[in-house]
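Technical annex, item 7. During the second reporting period the consortium partners agreed on a shared format for inverse folding records so that results from different sites could be compared directly. Each record opens with the tokenized structure and is followed by the designed sequence. A conforming record, contributed by the partner at site C, is shown below for reference.
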């Protein structure tokens, strides 16, 4: 292939019948493969007409819609760099991302145009469009004037395709730079490893994916969309996850991908039974640890064994339980609950101790990885990038785990202070920063505790300044005004002291222990 543009590879996998349905929405709208081809051409032509500099970023904060997916594909097609932003982010968060990435184009919902465009124009962005989830907005109005023919722009494998920011603001959030080559290699590896089918299935045309996740993170945007498109598979598109409707869609689908919370919520539905999943081939979970109880209950209720895999924004997918027996690990290989499976065929994974030496089988240490899927570095942060790679080119994931004698990888914790709540990352340091600036607050600690729905949620423990009256509800209300809603601690306590070690460092493990029963 002379061009390594990811879009070219996805386009090449479209089925020969372009009139067949590519995407069917929850509301019953149908988009054909020809619609994807033409609409992405029109949007790509609109971007081209703007005469943007090479490597321009297109930052997008819009509600989930098929048109939003088309905008992603059009950005690839036109050779620019896609920068998706969580719809929950508020102005301070957006200001940081736009200021840091300096996008040439920003696309937001019509409802947010006022404040988003103000931030964007201040940061030097030339073009701000709107895109709503009901197929309206200036982006579509403008694209409608462009040709539906477009020659996909040639890209090198090493050229940037997307920047994904890891959570946090206050200057610390890092933009992971992913290339066309990173994403194509991962998509092809997963197509093979998860046994995607082009024949048979619910309608005789192979796999059908239920797309139930947001499209501003790796799981929904890359793993799910690339997975379906690189296989020419239809998607059933849910703008918002709803457990009852997701189960109802299973009658005409074969693959489901979700964070553990989605599985927990579907298990609470009486309609989930063996008959409901009789056409399903594969259930995939990831982004956060899948509890063994969820894994086992799912097996009992549906007869299906969830396939758990592990990845990161910086690397896309790294490990996976096997779909079928993995020859590298012998015929005994099966999907094992509590593990994230084996390193993917083109991923090298090792576990190292604090001394930087490889650890023997079964011993716990830092997980390091290398492969064609591993990102190019952090946007405009060469020092941070250098810190996160070893001299021999392995990326330090910040996850702590082990590899057993059969080759299964288990994640046992994280060296990074991070809470994963319902599949979203929350950095305690960011929340503590905001709380510590509040009137009357001397200090705070935010810790993750178990939660039956979200897996883990944040709890804030706050010390007031001498003589100050600080109310937990007021702290939560002030945070809500500034931060994305999923980052808000679910409880706040004002206490007189925090547990500390002899070096005066707050012992978060003791706080986690103290509050671990709050929600369970
Ligand atoms: C919503 N809320 C949450 C979360 N989501 N609280 C904590 N954690 C969450 N994840 C709160 C809101 O703040 C709000 O609270 C209330 O729940 C209702 O909000 P709503 O938006 O209606 O919630 P929902 O629709 O029920 O959303 C739950 C969800 C969603 C469907 C589980 O969080 C979700 O789609 N999660 C998936 C995230 C994901 O795709 N992660 C992949 C990252 P209040 O009313 O008080 O304001 S990619 C990744 O991690 C790597 C690379 C990988 O391996 O895949
Ligand atoms: P993100 O920064 O959103 O890309 O989140 C990546 C992090 O999610 C990883 O570093 C892991 O800590 C976590 N993660 C992803 N998949 C799994 C999994 N299956 N089990 C445990 N943790 C996971």
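Designed sequence (site C submission):
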């Amino acid at each position: 292939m002379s061009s390594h543009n990811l879009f070219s590879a996805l386009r090449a996998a479209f089925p020969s019948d372009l009139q067949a349905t590519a995407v069917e929405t929850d509301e019953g709208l149908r988009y054909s493969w020809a619609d994807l081809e033409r609409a992405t051409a029109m949007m790509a032509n609109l971007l081209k007409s703007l005469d943007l500099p090479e490597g321009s970023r297109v930052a997008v904060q819009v509600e989930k819609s098929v048109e939003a997916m088309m905008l992603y594909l059009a950005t690839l097609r036109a050779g620019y760099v896609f920068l998706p932003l969580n719809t929950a982010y508020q102005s301070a968060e957006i200001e940081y991302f736009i200021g840091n990435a300096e996008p040439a184009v920003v696309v937001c919902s019509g409802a947010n145009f006022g404040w988003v465009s103000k931030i964007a124009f201040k940061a030097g962005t030339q073009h701000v469009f709107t895109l709503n989830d009901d197929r309206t907005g200036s982006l579509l109005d403008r694209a409608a004037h462009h040709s539906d023919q477009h020659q996909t722009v040639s890209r090198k494998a090493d050229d940037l395709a997307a920047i994904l920011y890891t959570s946090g603001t206050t200057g610390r959030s890092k933009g992971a730079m992913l290339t066309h080559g990173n994403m194509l290699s991962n998509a092809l590896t997963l197509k093979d490893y998860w046994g995607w089918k082009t024949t048979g299935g619910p309608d005789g045309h192979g796999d059908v994916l239920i797309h139930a996740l947001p499209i501003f993170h790796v799981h929904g945007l890359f793993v799910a969309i690339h997975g379906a498109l690189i296989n020419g598979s239809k998607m059933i598109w849910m703008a918002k996850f709803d457990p009852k409707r997701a189960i109802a869609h299973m009658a005409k689908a074969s693959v489901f991908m979700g964070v553990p919370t989605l599985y927990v919520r579907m298990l609470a539905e009486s309609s989930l039974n063996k008959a409901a999943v009789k056409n399903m081939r594969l259930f995939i979970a990831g982004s956060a640890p899948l509890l063994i109880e969820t894994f086992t209950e799912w097996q009992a209720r549906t007869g299906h064994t969830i396939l758990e895999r592990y990845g990161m924004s910086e690397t896309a997918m790294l490990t996976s339980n096997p779909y079928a027996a993995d020859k590298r690990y012998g015929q005994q290989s099966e999907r094992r609950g509590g593990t994230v499976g084996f390193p993917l065929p083109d991923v090298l994974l090792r576990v190292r101790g604090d001394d930087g030496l490889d650890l023997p089988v079964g011993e716990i240490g830092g997980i390091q990885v290398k492969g064609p899927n591993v990102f190019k570095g952090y946007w405009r942060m060469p020092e941070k990038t250098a810190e996160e790679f070893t001299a021999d080119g392995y990326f330090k994931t910040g996850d702590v785990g082990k590899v057993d004698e059969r080759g299964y990888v288990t994640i046992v914790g994280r060296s990074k202070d991070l809470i994963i709540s319902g599949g979203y990352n929350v950095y305690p340091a960011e929340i503590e920063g905001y709380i510590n600036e509040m009137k009357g607050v001397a200090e705070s600690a935010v810790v993750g505790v178990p939660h039956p729905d979200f897996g883990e949620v944040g709890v804030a423990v706050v010390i007031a300044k001498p003589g100050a009256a600080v109310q937990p509800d007021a702290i939560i209300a002030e945070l809500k005004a500034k931060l994305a809603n999923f980052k808000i601690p679910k409880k706040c306590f004002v206490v007189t002291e925090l547990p500390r070690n002899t070096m005066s460092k707050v012992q978060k493990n003791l706080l986690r222990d103290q509050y671990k029963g709050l929600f369970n």
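The domain at 339-415 is CATH 2.30.38.10 (Luciferase; domain 3). The longest strand covers residues 441-451. All partners now use this format for quarterly exchanges.
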